[in-house]
Amino acid sequence: MVVASTMASMDDHERKIVVEFCQLLEQSKQLFNGLRDLPQCGQKIWQGYFGKTFDVYTKLWKFQQQHSLRTSDTNNLNEAYSFYSAIRGRQYYSRVSQEDRSDLMVKKLRYYARFIVVCLLLRRVGAIRELLAELDKQIVDYTSTYEPDDQLEWSLVLEEIKTFVKADSIVNVLHADQSSVILSHRLTPLTTPPVEKSTMMNLSLQEIILIGNMSEQVKFSEMTIDMFRMMQTLEREKNRDEVNHVSDPPSRASFEKSYSITSNKTLAYPMMANHDVNSSRRENPHKYILYKPTITQIMMFLATGFKELPANGVLLMYISADGCFQTSKHVNDLGYDCGGVMASSKREMELTNKKGVHVKEIHCLYPGDLYAYTRKPLFVIIDSDNSFAFQYIPRYFGHPFVVLMSPQELPDKLHEQLQHNGSLFTLFLHSPLTAFCIICNILTVKMHLWERANSYVDRFITEASRLFTSKVKPDVSYIQFFGDDFLRLLLLRYVFCHVVLRHHRAFVGEQYLPRCQPPLPLASFLDEISLKKYVRDLAKHLDVLSHFENFE
Questions:
Q1: Judging by beta carbons within 10 Å of its beta carbon (0-12, 13-18, 19+), is residue 137 exposed, middle or buried?
Q2: Neighbouring residues of 508: CB distance < 8 A, sequence distance ≥ 6
Q3: Would you state the pLDDT for residue 37?
Q4: Which residue stretches of the chain have pLDDT < 50?
Q5: Are 378 and 317 in contact (CB under 8 A)?
Q6: Interacting residues of 296 by C-beta distance below 8 A, sequence separation 6+
Q7: Is the peptide bond before 518 cis (omega within 30 degrees of 0)?
Q8: C-beta of residue 210 within 8 angstroms of C-beta of residue 231
Q9: Contacts (Cβ under 8 Å, ≥6 apart) of 158
């Protein structure tokens, strides 16, 4: 009945999209489940079924990309990993080079690219290294054998992936044996900030729109490093025992051993064994992930997210984009005269018609464009060199509304370091300790130092949470958002960012500090002695006190 009523509320175009998606999804499930019943030996038998299954999954993937469907269920990532690992373990593409067909080689390269995306999202660094080495070899074989027109394109794909992986590990945490530690930045019970909840804290994050449009930032598969970091920040870490985590893609030998047939066929694919799609509850908010969208697409997804918000639901809009500046000296309308952020690729910021009258840049998202969406609880994060343009959005409708804005400038040295490797503000929201290390020029940290340093960050967050509920007026939007784990985490990491940068010697001037609307109290909260103490202790622990001014 619920599905029927939902379908009835859609227009014909939306209904057609959902029906087609459901058909592809059902077909992919049937084919995937059918693989379990196949014998574990005999490559010719497997090849045909794997080909059909892979083709359907490819159609489903393309369909999701085209229509931006997102389930936000990490079970789907684990299932994709299981499927791609099975292909690799069975060496499905091992004889492609012998068949002298360039189209099959392209399929193989696409398989590697998609598998790497899944491994990136699941933080399987060891698997990524192996797959990159294999992809590099496959590209060399492909280009030397066929001399294709897309030779440069595949070389760029490989370079894109390598650059992205390097940017993702901007601070290297090392074990005692000098091997790198693989860190997860998804939300866990241990990283969820404590809070004494009140009846006012009745909102929950339900819909998320992530927008990436930084022209010079590293990206891979239509995802910038900022989008990648924020996406992980807004997801819960799946219990590793529940999903039977596998550390790396299996070799053929280990695959034969691990995926052997038993009397219980569901054990043939461990990732699927305990996952009941119908009974599982979505633990993560629903996301739309938009890479360099047009203004029309932004408004369409905003309207969709707004429409789908349930009672007491919150819509979060995160934008990482280049600024769109207006040259007009007179500000008559704060909604449009202060500029905004670019909604598509970089272009002229202002147009002039034939009569010489200045008109607004149409490929720009202005603060005024968001006014209509403040009719429901709205949480906005703007990471841009024109972020402050969004500080004057009024609360016409009285609903909870918050804007977190990045600094508009960075010290020259940091700007050069981070121009391609992701925004500092987003990094603070994603991994506060990593951001702290970056601004103090720490690029390598021993694991024992990292763990102790994290304890200081945790203490800061706990104290900030206590102060938040006691120092911030209860009628302000912040308290209403504070009951949601994700929003509370973002707010407290914002406070950490503000306090740290405010006392750092390189960040002198208001343009180097983040802002928020409504403003948080400075004297009674952001300048609290207890918060400064934990930042000082952290700096002392990492031996970087010289980077900071007197904390007294």
A1: exposed
A2: none
A3: 67
A4: 1-7, 9, 240-281, 346-357
A5: yes
A6: none
A7: yes
A8: yes
A9: 132, 135, 136, 139
Length of the chain: 552
Question: Per residue in 256-310, pLDDT tens?
Answer: 333 232 222 222 222 322 333 333 345 789 999 999 999 999 999 999 999 999 9
Helices (H) and strands (E) in the chain, counts: 19, 13
Q: What is the pTM of this model?
A: 0.79
Domain positions in the chain are 1-170, 204-238+284-345+361-547
Which residue in 377, 354, 380 sits closest to 365, CA to CA?
A: 380
CA distance 517 to 525: 15
pLDDT at 473: 78
Structure tokens at 275: 């996952």
- The DSSP symbol for 93 reads T
Supply 322's token pair: 């280049």
Buried b (16+ CB within 10 A) or exposed e, 318-351: bbbbbbbbbeeeeeeebbbbbbbbbbbeeeebee
Among residues 32, 62, 63, 71, the alpha carbon closest in space to that of 49 is found at 32
Question: For 204-238+284-345+361-547, which CATH class?
Answer: alpha beta
